[in-house]
C-alpha cells in the first residue's frame, strides 16, 4: 500500500484530522522552541523613546533594547514551580501532537495498520488527553505570567506569537481527537460513498 492509495482509502474525517495534526505539529514546534510566548517592555529612565525588552519562551528569555537583543538565558530546570509546571504540561501536549501524528500516519499509510481501530482510538485518546494537559499549561502560563511579571511592575506587556500558536495547536489537537473518535465510531476505514 503506497502513500497515495493510503490517502485515497482513508475516510474524510481521517484526512481532515491528518491536516489538523500537521498544522498543530508545525505550530507547536514553533511555539515550543522560540522566545515568543511573552514580551515585557520597560522604559529606560530619562529616555522615553528607549525601552528594554525581555522576550520569554518556555526554555529561555532574551533581553535587549529597541535596537539590539543582547543576552539570552536558559530557563530549563527553573526553581519557579509554575514555570516548571507550564514546561511539563506543554511538553506533554507537544509530545502528544507528535505521537498522534505518527500514529495517524501509520494508520493511514501502512497497510497492516489501516483496518486497526485500536490505533485510531489510541490516537484520539492521545490527542484529547494531551490536548487537555496542553490547555492547562497554557492557562497556568497566562495567569501566572500576568500575576508575577505584569501586575507588580506595571510594565508594557504582550503575550506573543508563541503563546498564540500554542493555543491554536492545542485546539487543533483536541478537534482532531474528537474527529478521530467520530470516525472510529462510524467505522471510518473506507472513503465515504
Quick overview of this protein structure:
The protein is α+β, with helices and mostly antiparallel strands and 193 residues long.
Describe what you observe in this structure.
- There is one protein chain.
- The protein contains 5 helices and 5 strands; from the N terminus they run H-H-E-E-E-E-H-H-E-H.
- With 193 residues, it is an alpha+beta fold.
- It has a domain of 131 residues: Butyryl-CoA Dehydrogenase, subunit A, domain 3, CATH 1.20.140.
- Strands 4-3-2-1-5 form a 5-stranded antiparallel sheet.
- It starts with a helix and ends in a 7-residue tail after the last helix.
CATH class (first level) name of the domain at 3-34 and 80-153 and 161-185 = Mainly Alpha
Q: What are the secondary-structure elements, in order, as H or E?
A: HHEEEEHHEH
Low-confidence stretches: none
Strand order of the largest sheet: 4-3-2-1-5
Main β-sheet: number of strands, strand sense, barrel status?
5 strands, antiparallel
Approximate helicity band: 55-70%
**Mean of all residue-level pLDDT scores:** 86
Q: In CATH terms, what is the architecture of the domain at 3-34 and 80-153 and 161-185? A: Up-down Bundle
* Residues in β-strands, percent: 15-25%
Transmembrane segments: 12-32, 82-106, 118-141, 161-182
Subcellular location: Membrane
Membrane topology: Multi-pass membrane protein
Main location: membrane
Amino acid at each position: 500500500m503506497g502513500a497515495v492509495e493510503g490517502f485515497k482509502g482513508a475516510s474524510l474525517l481521517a484526512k481532515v484530522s491528518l491536516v489538523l495534526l500537521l498544522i498543530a505539529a508545525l505550530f507547536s514546534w514553533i511555539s515550543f522552541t522560540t522566545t515568543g510566548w511573552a514580551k515585557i517592555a520597560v522604559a529606560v529612565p530619562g529616555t522615553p523613546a528607549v525601552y528594554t525588552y525581555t522576550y520569554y519562551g518556555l526554555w529561555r528569555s532574551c533581553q535587549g533594547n529597541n535596537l539590539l537583543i543582547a543576552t539570552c538565558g536558559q530557563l530549563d530546570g527553573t526553581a519557579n514551580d509554575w514555570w516548571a509546571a507550564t514546561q511539563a504540561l506543554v511538553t506533554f501536549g507537544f509530545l502528544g501532537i507528535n505521537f498522534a501524528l505518527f500514529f495517524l500516519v501509520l494508520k493511514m499509510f501502512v497497510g497492516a495498520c489501516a483496518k486497526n481501530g485500536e490505533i485510531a482510538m489510541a490516537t484520539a485518546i492521545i490527542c484529547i488527553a494531551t490536548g487537555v494537559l496542553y490547555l492547562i499549561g497554557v492557562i497556568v502560563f497566562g495567569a501566572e505570567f500576568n500575576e508575577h511579571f505584569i501586575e507588580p511592575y506595571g510594565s508594557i506587556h504582550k503575550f506573543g506569537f508563541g503563546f498564540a500558536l500554542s493555543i491554536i495547536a492545542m485546539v487543533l489537537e483536541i478537534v482532531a481527537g474528537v474527529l478521530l473518535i467520530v470516525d472510529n465510531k462510524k467505522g471510518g476505514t473506507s472513503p465515504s460513498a
